[in-house]
Amino acid sequence: MERQAKIVSIINWKGGVGKTTLTHHLATGLQHLSSDELELVGHEHSHPKVLLVDADAQCNLSILCLTPEEFENLAYHNKPPIGTLKDLIEHYLKNEHPQVDVNDFILKAHVRSGNGKVYEHIDLLPAHSELIHTDMDIAVYLRPNFKEHLFGWDIYKFQMLHHILNTVKHEYDFIFIDCPPNLNYITQNALYASDYYLIPAIPDRLSSYGISSIKNKVDELNERFHSSSKEYSDTKLIGIVFNFIREYGSQPKQTQANMINMLKDTLPPDVMFNSYLTYGDAITRASTLSYPVFAVENSQAKQSECVKNITLEFLNRMGGGIVV
Question: What are the residue boundaries of the AAA domain, all occurrences included (predicted)?
C-alpha cells in the first residue's frame, strides 16, 4: 500500500529550545517502539518510514545525524558534493517543474543509531550553510511572466518545499522539518508544506515569551495562503513540548511548574503535551557521538523514557485528533 506522509514542522522563533533534539528524537523514537505500541498506532507490520528535512542553515540536524566530519566531507569536500535542500530550492525557485529527481538529494539510511549502525527506516535531506543566502535569493527573485498586479502573484515563493516534498511523500509515513529560528521564507515554505507544526519550548519567562505569537502568526499565514491558493490546507498545531525540565519528586520544580501553569491559563486547552523532556546529560553525551539518546541509555532510563512518552503522545494526538 502506498504511503502518504504526514508532514510536521518543528518551529520556534527562539533558538536553543531543543528544536533539533526534538526533531531527531521523534524520528528515532518511532524506531524504538515495541510491536504492541506500533500496533496501537496502526504500524504493526513495520516501523514508520521517516524523512528528516534539515531546513536550517546552521545544519545542526545534518551534523547530528551524520557526525560533523561526515557532513563536512559530503557537503563541502566531495567532488562533486552531495546535493542539499539549498540546491533543490534553487532548482524549484527558477522552474516550477525542474528536471531533477528529489531522491538524488536524499541520503538513504544514513542516520546513525549507535555502534556503527544506521536506521534503515530514516532518510535525510541535508541542509547547507548557504541556505541563509538562498532565503535572500527567494526574497528578490521574480519569475518571468509573473504580473505584480495579480493578487497572490508571489505565492510560488512559499510553495517550493511543498512541490519538493510532494514528489516523495508517498514513500514515507512521516516527514519532519527542522526549521530555522526565524520566520523567513524557508520557514514559511516549511509551514506551507506541512500538515502540522510542533513547538518545542523551555518553561522560563524569556523562552516562553512569544509562544502565543507563533500560533497567531501561523493562523495569519494560513489565511494568506488560503486566499492565494484554493488547494492549500491549514497547518494545524499539534502542541507544545517542554524541554530541559528539572524535576523534584517526579514533577517539574516549582519555578518551572509555575511558568507551565501560567501558560496553561493563556493558551488554548490541551495545547501542551503532558510528556516532556527532562534535563540530563544523556542526550548531550549521545549528541557528541551523533547518536540519539537510545545509544547511551536503555529504554527504561530517564531521558529515553521521556522521548518514548513524547513520541507516543505525538502519535496519539495525531490519531486522536488532539490538534488546536
Answer: 5-226
The residues pairing with 174 across neighbouring beta strands, listed in sequence order, are: 6, 50
Q: Which of 15-19, 190-194, 202-206 has the highest mean pLDDT?
A: 190-194
Task: Please choose, from the candidates 203, 205, 207, 221, the residue with its C-alpha nearest in 3D space to the C-alpha of residue 277.
Answer: 203
Amino acid type, 22: L
29 belongs to a structural domain: yes
For 247, the grid coordinates are 524535576
Q: What is the CATH number of the domain that holds 114?
A: 3.40.50.300
Contact (CB, 8 A) for 232 and 225: yes
How many Å apart are CA 307 and CA 309, to the nearest integer? 5
Q: Report the predicted TM-score, pTM, of the whole model to 2 decimal places.
A: 0.94
Q: Report how far Cα 274 is from the mean position of its chain's Cα atoms.
A: 20
Closest Cα to residue 50, out of 179, 194, 175? 175
Higher pLDDT, 38 or 231: 231
Q: How far apart are CA 282 and CA 226, in angstroms?
A: 43
- Report, as an integer, the average pLDDT of 35-54: 83
State the CB neighbour count (10 A cutoff) for residue 270: 13
Cα radius of gyration (the chain): 19
Asked if pLDDT for residue 149 goes beyond 60, the answer is: no
At 38 the pLDDT is 80
- Please give the tally of structural domains in the chain: 1
1 falls within a domain: no
Residue written as grid cell 542516520: 111
CB 4 within 8 Å of CB 170: yes
Distance CA 283, CA 294 (A): 9
- Whether 188 is in a domain gets the answer yes
Reference 119, options 129, 128, 110; nearest CA is 110
Q: Does residue 311 lie in a domain region?
A: yes
Average pLDDT over the chain, rounded to whole? 90
| 3-state SS, residue 181 | coil
For residue 185, give its domain range.
6-320
pLDDT score, position 41: 67
